[in-house]
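dumping this here so i dont lose it
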């Protein structure tokens, strides 16, 4: 990188917001999984949208590539420098506008964390439709760029479904400002939705207008011991049909619970040990517990209920602490696939069998959002560059009509397998959009398409 334009950047953001020191850069250079890392000449931390635009324009002028970064909680290597790119950290853009109580909307800076947003809107009597375990660190901009999913997709959809408008900086430094809070706006292409899931390759998200949901004070959680995935799906289907407020349906297995218990020092689940577990949560203005227990009344499986916040969290811990427990054990291969619901049980059985036979060193830990057909296949026990298990799992996913990434994205981790579940026509259309919006390829090079695709 030609660093001669650093003085120009200093003039834009102030000297203290260019981090050149190796110690200061380190946290930005390695991702949360510790699997993806690189080095950056410096981290630049603009404080508002105009500064982001000026920084991007200066980098474009110098032909310098950028990696936009939020809370650095991504799981596919899409938010860290890989080949000497400058890291553009958005965490200082953390403004939160007053909640619009008539429309149920709020405007949020890209750098606000999910927990900050939740606290802000809850204080005004509202809630936000997306929730996930990394809420204290993940930022709204990163969540939009990756179209984050999480534990409430079954009811409220993913991040793209919360978007009413967006503000973003294009690769040439121009700013798109679409934050008017208009619920109806059919004036051409929906740029907010184009950027949702674009993984920092098309523009830098600087702010968003988000739809809020009512705060539902009555909540109930049920943890069930289920014999297998097919049973979890059957219970989920009947609870879905018998309730109006199902907000989460999470599946996990004995191997994950054992790991979580060891890592977090938790007792056995109150339903005893079981090959598989299903966690359900209902939320309603009132009587969520009645709704959930009556939907489960005909189901004869060991079940624990919780309505108080602390007890609900106690049941959730067995599911929510999977990610940290797995990472404490080693650097996992993290696969995040979606299957048609009627192939999910078959997938789970075949993945386990295939790994047992073909990659016996692999130690799979499965869990996921069963209502969305989304299974996280985490594999411990393999070297980071040993792709045998990844290859087999993603091939099987494609064979069964699934997606190789349900919610984490492609990043740099999955580029080689993108063609499995996106057609040549799909990829050509995406590449055309990429080259139209970022003709010099300075935004997050290598992400989604891979490095070789860009060099061709
Ligand atoms: C989750 O569902 O917990 C997240 O997708 C994180 C993960 O897969 O580890
Ligand atoms: Zn997930």
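and the seq i came up w/
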């Amino acid at each position: 990188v030609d660093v001669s334009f650093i003085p120009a950047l200093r003039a834009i953001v102030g000297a203290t917001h260019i981090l050149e020191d190796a110690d200061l850069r380190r946290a930005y250079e390695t991702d949360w999984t510790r699997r993806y890392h690189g080095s950056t000449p410096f981290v630049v931390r603009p404080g508002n949208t105009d500064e982001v635009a000026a920084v991007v324009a200066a980098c474009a002028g110098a032909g310098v590539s950028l990696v936009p970064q939020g809370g650095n909680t991504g799981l596919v290597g899409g938010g860290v420098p890989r080949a000497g790119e400058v890291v553009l950290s958005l965490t200082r853009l953390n403004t939160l506008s007053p909640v619009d109580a008539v429309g149920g909307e709020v405007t949020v800076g890209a750098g606000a964390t999910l927990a900050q947003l939740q606290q802000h809107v809850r204080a005004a009597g509202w809630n936000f439709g997306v929730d996930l375990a990394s809420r204290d660190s993940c930022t709204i901009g990163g969540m939009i760029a990756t179209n984050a999913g999480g534990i409430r997709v079954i009811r409220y959809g993913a991040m793209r479904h919360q978007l009413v408008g967006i503000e973003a900086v294009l690769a040439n430094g121009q700013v798109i400002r679409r934050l008017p809070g208009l619920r109806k706006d059919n004036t051409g292409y929906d740029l907010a939705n184009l950027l949702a899931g674009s993984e920092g390759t098309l523009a830098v998200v600087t702010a968003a207008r988000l739809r809020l949901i009512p705060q539902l004070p009555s909540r109930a959680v049920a943890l069930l011991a289920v014999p297998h995935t097919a049973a979890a799906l059957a219970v989920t289907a009947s609870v879905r049909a018998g309730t109006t407020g199902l907000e989460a349906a999470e599946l996990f297995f004995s191997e994950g619970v054992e790991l979580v218990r060891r890592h977090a020092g938790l007792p056995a689940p109150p339903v005893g040990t079981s090959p598989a577990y299903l966690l359900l949560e209902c939320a309603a203005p009132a009587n969520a517990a009645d709704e959930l227990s009556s939907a489960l009344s005909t189901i004869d499986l060991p079940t624990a209920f919780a309505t108080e916040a602390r007890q609900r969290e106690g049941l959730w811990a067995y599911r929510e602490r999977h990610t940290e427990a797995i990472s404490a054990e080693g650097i996992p291969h993290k696969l995040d696939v979606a299957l048609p619901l009627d192939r999910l049980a078959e997938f789970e059985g075949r993945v386990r069998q295939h790994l047992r036979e073909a990659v016996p060193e692999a130690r799979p830990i499965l869990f996921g959002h069963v209502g969305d057909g989304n299974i996280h296949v985490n594999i411990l026990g393999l070297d980071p560059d040993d792709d045998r298990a990844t290859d087999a799992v993603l091939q099987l996913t494609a064979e069964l009509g699934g997606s190789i990434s349900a919610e984490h994205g492609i990043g740099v981790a999955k580029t080689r397998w993108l063609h499995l579940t996106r057609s040549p026509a799909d990829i050509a259309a995406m590449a055309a959009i990429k080259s139209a919006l970022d003709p010099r390829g300075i935004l997050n090079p290598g992400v989604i398409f891979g490095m070789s695709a860009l060099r061709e």
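The radius of gyration is 22 Å.
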